[in-house]
Design goal:
This protein is 18% helix and 28% strand. By secondary structure, the chain is of the alpha+beta class. The chain is globular and about 65 Å long. Keywords: Kelch repeat.
């Protein structure tokens, strides 16, 4: 008995020591913490998994495998790594609770691929950790002075605060903005004198904006989307025309090409990539705001109509959350809107969700940490600098802070980089606070 007790005690001590060593290894590798005081284990590649695997064996031998696996957000792993490495681990396959966690991860990826998964629910494990959620960029736009901004503001999720990043080369309002592969792209817009076809790219590693190839058509009020590769520039307008033009930018070759035009001209359109399609939502055809929606299939090079929204709107924000498309605010033909609609491609249906706390036309929208952020806009009386966030679980918007500049027509995107990489430039040169 004494010998068995001693062996058990030694095993516990060895396991505890292994936990401390492994946690220190992973902490040194990733410098990542939940920010909530709890130890966290994050692995994103095979090398990290190899380090983690030895400790998993110790946890398995001591009956603590499920406890430690709960710390890992399996649904956020790339599906190839999840199924090719994690799912094949015998110690995971032999533990019922771990298999439940693996099923949750599988169902998460199936849900995002527009497969019907009965009773699927989101959890803390399907939400990125603060450190890995990226940086929210608010780029360009204009305020009460009327002059477009070249300034950008960045949101630190950990600090819950905004700061100014390096300015663009050009002033841009009603600019298209997107982030692809850890870089931010600003395309088109209006500089206060003329419409722009130029594009510039911000690289967090150099903290500089670099001019890239220009579009073929100069325009403002365009929307950008990407299915993980090329960038699509959709619609837009100039002083004479609303466009149905769509151009595709190849990042590697730094070249633009033309793809199939939309069925309808759309200035002030919203867009997002969802599963295997690019959606164009609302906008104005030169006569009236639109409720119609169409989507682009890059394999067929074709746009097709899908179910229209419940409300006509242009200058609206569009983002993706939990496999659904959300369209936020905008203008009808008379005034800014506070209404928000959600489209589920699995059922091809729209429904209304909670409205914004204030109407916002020309609002910038992006999804961060499982919530939709709405930045700035115009409420019919003044330009806004307030920011509010939508919680889909509570079906509620709440104010979560403000940017320094009141601005509408700004581009908003989330970049897969670290806040610490971006140089804080203070107040910037466009220190305009006039919101009227």
């Amino acid at each position: 008995m004494a010998s068995e007790s001693m062996n058990a005690k030694q095993a516990r001590n060895q396991c505890a020591k292994g936990k401390r060593q492994q946690h220190q290894q992973i902490k040194n590798r990733s410098s990542v913490s939940d920010g909530d005081g709890e130890d966290s284990f994050i692995f994103e590649a095979h090398e990290a998994w190899k380090d983690f695997h030895e400790s998993l064996l110790r946890f398995y031998e001591n009956g603590e495998l499920c406890d430690i696996t709960l710390k890992v957000r399996l649904p956020l792993l790339p599906v190839d790594f999840l199924m090719g490495v994690v799912a094949k681990e015998q110690i995971v396959k032999q533990n019922l609770k771990c298999r439940d966690l693996l099923d949750e991860a599988r169902n998460y990826h199936l849900h995002l691929s527009s497969r019907a998964v009965p009773d699927f629910e989101y959890s803390v494990r399907t939400t990125p950790r603060k450190h890995t959620a990226g940086v929210l960029f608010c780029v360009g736009g204009r305020g009460g002075s009327g002059d477009p901004f070249r300034s950008i503001e960045c949101y630190s999720i950990n600090k819950n605060s905004w700061f100014f990043g390096p300015e663009m080369n050009s002033r841009r309002r009603h600019v298209g903005v997107i982030s692809v592969k850890g870089k931010v792209y600003a395309v088109g817009g209006h500089d206060g004198n003329e419409h722009l076809g130029s594009m510039e790219m911000f690289d967090p590693l150099t903290n500089k904006w670099m001019m890239k190839a220009s579009m073929n058509t100069k325009r403002r009020g365009i929307a950008l989307a990407s299915l993980g590769g090329p960038i699509y520039a959709i619609g837009g307008l100039d002083d004479n025309t609303c466009f149905n033009d769509v151009e595709r930018y190849d990042i590697e070759s730094d070249q633009w090409s033309t793809v199939a035009p939309m069925n309808t001209p759309r200035g002030g359109v919203g867009s997002v990539a969802l599963v295997n399609h690019v959606y164009a939502v609302g906008g104005n055809d030169g006569v009236a705001s639109l409720s119609s929606v169409e989507r682009y299939d890059p394999h067929l090079d074709k746009w097709i109509e899908v179910k229209e929204m419940g409300q006509r709107r242009a200058g609206n924000g569009v983002s993706e959350l939990h496999g659904c498309l959300y369209v936020v605010g905008g203008f009808d033909d008379n005034s800014p809107l506070s209404s928000v609609e959600r489209y589920d491609p699995r059922s091809n249906k729209w429904d209304y969700v909670a409205s914004l706390t204030t109407p916002r036309g020309g609002v910038g929208i992006a999804t961060v940490m499982g919530k939709i952020f709405a930045v700035g806009g115009h409420n019919g009386n003044a330009y806004l600098n307030t920011v509010e966030a939508f919680d889909p679980v509570l079906n509620r918007w709440e104010l979560v802070g403000s940017v320094s500049h009141c601005r509408a027509g700004a581009g908003v995107a989330v970049c897969a980089c670290l806040t610490s990489q971006i140089r804080d430039v203070g107040h910037g040169s466009n220190n305009v606070v006039d919101c009227m």
